[in-house]
Amino acid sequence: MDGADDILIINDALAIPRDELAFRTSRSSGPGGQHVNKTETRVELLFDSVASPSLSDLQRALLFAKLGGAIDDDGVIHVVSERYRSQLRNREDAVAKFVALLRDALRPVKRRKPTRIPKGVREARLKAKRERGEIKRERRRRPEDA
Predict the structure, then answer these.
(1) Topology of domain 3-105, per CATH?
(2) What is the DSSP letter of 7?
(3) Mean pLDDT over the full length of the chain
(4) 8 has which bridge partners?
């Protein structure tokens, strides 16, 4: 591996060295016969967000706020891949999922610009409601009709 492969670029403000990631393997679930029953192709990526020197305090807080379900009580992010029959491909898939997960979590939230309903639109809506109410009032049975 060269130097560029040793670092995961998450966004402009964050790059994580691959040596901060830990991997665990286990047997995959589901059908597959003899192959799936004897090989450990399922890969679980573990990233300790609390101890990581790559994250700023703000980034760490954003991750905890947005990734509550993927972070355990110790602050470790778990990403699992068992899509492929190969451990290597599952490892690459887990890393890709991890990068996408962090990229989404650290994306800044666009602030909503408060808007107002134009006066003409509001008046037209109220006029339509009045007309509809009038139609319904006309349908009612009048005491003199009975």
Answers:
(1) Double Stranded RNA Binding Domain (3.30.160)
(2) E
(3) 83
(4) 16
φ/ψ region of 62 (left if φ > 0, alpha if ψ in -120 to 50, else beta) reads: alpha
The C-alpha atoms of residue 3 and residue 99 are separated, in whole angstroms, by 18
CA distances (Å), origin 24, targets 45, 58, 82: 7, 28, 12
Map out the domains of the chain as residue ranges.
3-105
For residue 47, the cross-strand partners are 21, 77
* DSSP 8-state symbol, 83: S
Question: If we measure between CA atoms, which residue out of 74, 84, 69 comes closest to residue 22?
Answer: 74
pTM passes above 0.85? no
Question: What is the identity of the amino acid at 114?
Answer: P
- The amino acid at residue 95 is V
> Given 3-state DSSP classes, what are the helix, strand and coil percentages for the chain, each rounded to the nearest 5?
45, 20, 35
Q: Encode pLDDT of 75-133 as tens digits.
A: 888 888 888 888 889 889 999 998 898 888 888 888 989 999 999 999 999 999 999 99
